[in-house]
Amino acid sequence: MIHSLFLINSSGDIFLEKHWKSVVSRSVCDYFFEAQERATEAENVPPVIPTPHHYLLSVYRHKIFFVAVIQTEVPPLFVIEFLHRVVDTFQDYFGVCSEPVIKDNVVVVYEVLEEMLDNGFPLATESNILKELIKPPTILRTVVNTITGSTNVGDQLPTGQLSVVPWRRTGVKYTNNEAYFDVIEEIDAIIDKSGSTITAEIQGVIDACVKLTGMPDLTLSFMNPRLLDDVSFHPCVRFKRWESERILSFIPPDGNFRLLSYHVSAQNLVAIPVYVKHNISFRDSSSLGRFEITVGPKQTMGKTIEGVTVTSQLPRGVLNMSLVPSQGAHTFDPVTKMLSWDVGKINPQKLPSLKGTMSLQAGASKPDENPTINLQFKIQQLAISGLKVNRLDMYGEKYKPFKGIKYMTKAGKFQVRT
Amino acid sequence: MSSNSFAYNEQSGGGEATELGQEATSTISPSGAFGLFSSDMKKNEDLKQMLESNKDSAKLDAMKRIVGMIAKGKNASELFPAVVKNVASKNIEIKKLVYVYLVRYAEEQQDLALLSISTFQRALKDPNQLIRASALRVLSSIRVPIIVPIMMLAIKEASADLSPYVRKNAAHAIQKLYSLDPEQKEMLIEIIEKLLKDKSTLVAGSVVMAFEEVCPDRIDLIHKNYRKLCNLLVDVEEWGQVVIIHMLTRYARTQFVSPWKEGDGLEDNEKDFYDSDEEQKEKADKRKRPYTMDPDHRLLIRNTKPLLQSRNAAVVMAVAQLYWHIAPKSEAGIISKSLVRLLRSNREVQYIVLQNIATMSIQRKGMFEPYLKSFYVRSTDPTMIKILKLEILTNLANEANISTLLREFQTYVKSQDKQFAAATIQTIGRCATSITEVSDTCLNGLVCLLSNRDEIVVAESVVVIKKLLQMQPIQHGEIIKHMAKLLDSITVPVARASILWLIGENCERVPKIAPDVLRKTAKSFTSEDDLVKLQILNLGAKLYLTNSKQTKLLTQYILNLGKYDQNYDIRDRTRFIRQLIVPNEKSGALSKYAKKIFLAQKPAPLLESPFKDRDHFQLGTLSHTLNTKATGYLELSNWPEVAPDPSVRNVEVIELAKEWTPAGKAKKENPDEKFYSESEEEEDSSESSSDSESASGSESGEDEEEDHSGDSGEDSGESGSESEAGKGRAAKHAKARGKGDSKDVDKEKENSKSSESSSGESSSIEESSSDSESESESESESESRTITKAKEKKTKQDRNPLTKDVSLLDLDDFNPVSSPVVLPTPALSPSLIADLEGLNLSATSSVISVSTPVFVPGKTHVLLHRMSGKGLAAHYFFPRQPCIFGDKMVSVQITLNNTTDQKIENIHVGGKKLPMGMQMHVFNPIESLEPAGSITVSVGIDFCDSTQTASFQLCTKDDCFSVNIQPPVGELLLPVAMSEKDFKKEQGLQLKLCTVGH
């Protein structure tokens, strides 16, 4: 399946290569560079590039291209999904996934890649198992290793791979047993010029951080499971139980993982928590344009909206902007024409606004389209769909764990057309 | 850091400390600032020295640096001799890194690589399964042709290994050996055949992968394993699932007949989509030769459905393509929701999924129509995603939604992404042609765009308008005039050419403008693009023919210019036109027809989706994405006219039993049982399963099923334990007799829970804690259902030999001291267990007769709750009596209660929605039921020996309520009586078989 993997940074250097079958020459990447050149932006590089003898499948994350070389027919999503899993694993191991970090930990990276694929077919992709095989580097361990000469490779053999709960490592021990669940909902919306909603939907995830001793068996039930329209589970969730009772029953992996992602059924009207008032105008004759936006709360269920950021890609004709925000800070990059305004909290008494003028290229005609405004925000302690966790029970272990549930609503792809 | 490496630092003099092994690699390069070459050589010397030191830390450092070199693509092959010596190192990390090195360079240094082989051969015999596995992995990854026989031997041995993990690695090794030496194919196929029979979920994915790579055409190897693979699928790891699903899709297309109605495949079956299942079924019934789906076909479709919920996009896509290619069209609709969910994922996943949706949406619009808004474009999407979304929006456009879409398109046209704006214009053109109601609106919209500032937008509009006008032979003089004016400003060649062509075609409609346009273009002829020049020539020719008075000279001027053009195409065209239109003595008969030739009615171009014909590639494949056949692509065959013999998939019990025997032996030979964590687990699990049986003897018909389901899941962890568990069970059974009525609902639930759990490890834990646990029965039933699905509707031909086996097992569940009841064939539950477990029970003749049950549980199940039934409550229970309505039916008693204060009238069974083959004998309508009254009626249902749900409607005068009855497996069995001697005989046989295993 997957023959080789090349890691390419944004300046076009191959800084890591790994082969699972016979060595494929680096020169195969030339086809990739060609495609990269043709696509002006990194994210427009096609994920599948055919070459005379190979096919290059790539993903682009953290400013790194992960290019897999394959030779024969394979479901492309298989490879793409795997590459994303590789990136996730690196992130899990090193905290961030960037070129310097990968270069610094090249040996661990290599060992991990070696375990993840055998002959190009995924072998161990669960981070619990991988961490048992190869311990992630921590500052402490690095220091200890330097002194004692010990290594990152686990000395006991990973039995998790053999068990029927392959996602959980064995022999987990904690002094404080805790299980935290974050219900995070994201609102994807397109709002049109006049402020009416074109499309809006809620996508949610439940991320868990479970640190429990032994082999706990958890069940999580909801007050209103009917809200969930479409769900996808971590493999640990017993599907049958969900089908029949709408209860999540699972033996959790150790550590952080995504338990569930869901989609809230479309029948429920989505409450849009913010509105944006905008007045952006270009005049044909003058070289000045007016720019004015105000952000305000709409349906917030009494919670404060925090972490608001407004970004907008302005037309090429805009040379510079002189703006005054009522709160927060703003920046405008005259090269990329990207305006970003870090608003912070919205105070309903004093709505934040950003006003000023744009200087336009003299003589150029006015742009056809007003820029779209992208919004980011967060609302703590609120799941906008109204989803509520009813209870969390643990079986299989004697101790009493500490349990915590947190709700949060965020903006997903939230766009306002102007 | 050891003193040793410190010494190294000093002597190398580089000063680039290797304090941390990992960082060392990144700091190597700067040290070679003076004379890169020499320093490299020197470095390698150092590495050699370090590798030869006797300190592990130094070796490790060296290895880490070497791996760093490999990662960067630097050549480290000259260190091979030094590295290979360390292959037997005790230190695991050194060993691992040496393996990494070996796999990378062994191909280049074959002779030296042979030095390491003996180490692996020794490791292959290691008591530790992980060491055995990794040795096999490395051994098979060394691509040295000389060791092919050794590899072959190792794979053979590993494929019979007790540990499923080793067997999994063996499956991987098969592919490696095959690519190294394809001549071993025959032998490898034998091993694949053997491994395909493996029941472990760990092995399934890998061996199917090997199958796909080595012998994808040997579909016959799959027959016997088909049902097992379908049933294991949910528990296989996600990557294996993808491979298995793709393989099974191909398999299904060769083995089953088409579930699609004739003519369906080609036409847009929007209508079909809206048909409810019932209607569908009715239609099917009405047809002369009703289509009945092979139960195995159904099994595959049903067992893959839960996987749509996978977090892995590849799995979801695999299931989606399976549904698309093999499910009845009315059922394929369920995949759309899951596919739309994937659109939230990364850019790359979106790209592939959108491509597939684009192909699907051409054929079956209805599937994605409800999700129209999910395909709306955001300004932050990458261009390729935008264009794909646009494609799908176009495919989904219809009369109802076109106005919304056009409004949306208006926004897109203004996009700053000009490539996208141009694509939108194309799209509008396509909408205009496909939906005639809006074609005028679209045309007007496009004309407005002609005054756009952006040239690309204008040019694209011109091209599209040209196509539209060509399709509508109505007068559009105004538009043409407008476009003629544009010719002054627009520079994009395609647009200019389009305008010229349009004027030429309609030159008689715009008699004043056309000659003027020709005049203008004649002036600029030399500076035009080739494309435009050709059209100028055409325009000239057409005008010459229609309006020679005004344009004769102009045309001749242009022809003269064309004659000396640099481009030979243009010179050629010029010559051709001149001969054709200018009358001279040489001109032949053709010139008479010149006008007809030039001004012939031209067929309108078709605006088609680029995804139109992609569906001949299997969806979700690389070939589909590229729209060309990729290397190694396996065609999806067409449905066969007549289904091949379905009985090939029937699993013969004896064959399986044989298979277990060697596994058991292997276990015995292996003295290191303690090492395996699983050996403990397996004891636990066998204990727990036998416990559960003794505790709930009365219900053990059902329990037993669950035990089996538990066992088969647990197989992944063990292979030899099966026989042991069987033994334990048999023994316990004997003890459990007579305790028949020790029935405790809680206990029973608890047990079923623990035995149902697919994890051997967890089951013991769960059991200890399960007091607090309440597991609903329905759940455990459904668990067992998945496992037993394979057996549903078991074909009649293998009933006869198998019935006896089954009734033998049943014996424990029911008290044998009872009078035989005369029943035609005791065939209610064939082969459920035998098929599943491979317990070998030969069909020795013994007198077995059906008996009446001594114990009948009083447990009732709720059929209809009074709250949901508007006061009508219904409960059902299984009286375990032979059914009076038919020998294959299970009798069910339904108690109806009226909890309202009014009479409920005319209670009857309404529409039935039974799975294929199921039958139901309903009760006679009840005319009225007094308030607080209750009445018991009995019905008979032929569940076809499956645990499928029988759904039907319970109707009163005013309402209809949908209700379900799902039988626990135990209720499908029939009590039998047999003499103790017979029982012993059967039991003995069973025991003997088990002991053979040891």
Automatic annotation (TrEMBL), chain A:
Protein name as it appears in the record: Adaptor related protein complex 3 subunit mu 2
Lineage: Eukaryota, Metazoa, Chordata, Craniata, Vertebrata
Gene encoding the protein: AP3M2
Superkingdom classification of source: Eukaryota
TrEMBL record, chain B:
UniProt superkingdom: Eukaryota
This protein's name: Adaptor related protein complex 3 subunit beta 1
